[in-house]
Amino acid sequence: MKGGHGLRRSYRGQKAGGIPETDLNEQTGGIDVKSAARKGLFALIGSWVLLPAYFLIMGRSLDWWQAWVWCAVVLVPMTIFGLWMARTDPDFIARRLKMREKERAQQRVGAIGFPFYVAAFALPGFDHRYGWSEVPVAAVIAALGLSLAGYLLVLRVFIENRWAGRTVEIWEGQQVVSTGPYAIVRHPMYTGGLIFWLATPVALGSWWAFLPALASIHILVLRIRNEEEVLRRDLNGYEEYLREVRYRLLPLVW
Fold first, then answer.
1. CA–CA separation, 169 vs 191, rounded Å?
2. Cβ contacts of residue 66 below 8 Å, gap of 6+?
3. What is the C-alpha separation between 226 and 59, in angstroms, rounded?
4. Could you tell me the mean pLDDT of each successive run of 10 residues in the chain, 254 residues long?
5. What is the predicted pLDDT for the residue at 40?
6. d(CA 86, CA 88)
7. C-alpha angle 29-30-33 in degrees, rounded to nearest 5
């Protein structure tokens, strides 16, 4: 489950690489994990081409250094982690490639958030092209550091929770994860994603894009509230976990 859980107190009967000895197609909802691993590798290769090409098209300039550094911040750890997971846990890749939400509430949340995400990612290109913002270099560097920190936190969550798919649903054999970052907040992947998403506009040199990016806070709140309803309903042990970990997203805040 995206941002969600799985109790990783122990895995019995594991294969090498930490993969439980169960049918992988069963665990991933019938997805062919070998095919998913290949698709994941193609996606990595495509990201190295399409992401820089997107910024080149939007910014219409090779001197947009902020965009090229941001691409490195994302693509280098993504590639290292993706290749490692494709080798050690291909069913994780399969879960991450599943995009269609089953819960109608999550479909509505996605529809609400989509235009804000598009605006937050498109505006930096126009901002660079037309010179709307003058973001100090120090602010850009700080934001790049936050982008990297947020992204690495997301990857850390993936290591802790092999059930972290893109969609809100319960997988066959899933348990509650209460270790690592999940001992601090209930949805650490969203914490890392929020840090990454809010820092990205400034890292790309745009103040204006930060405004639609702020909408991600409300979108995450809506998503988390419904996700916890699903977890309470379908995941054994989640009620106990809620009593153990108080905060959802940010310690001492919410």
1. 19
2. 128, 140, 144, 203, 204, 205
3. 37
4. 46 32 39 68 89 94 95 96 86 79 88 94 95 96 98 94 81 84 95 96 97 93 92 89 93 90
5. 76
6. 6
7. 100
Task: Kindly report the length of the chain.
Answer: 254
Complete domains list, the chain, with CATH: 24-244 (1.20.120.1630)
DSSP state of 62: S
Q: Any idea which residue has 């992204």 for tokens?
A: 151
Q: What are the Cα distances from residue 110, in Å, to 8, 39, 94, 140, 217?
A: 29, 23, 21, 29, 13
Q: Which residue bears the tokens 């080798």?
A: 87
CA 66 to chain centre: 21
Axis crossing angle, helix 104-130 with helix 210-234, rounded to the nearest 10: 160
Residue at token pair 């920190």: 149
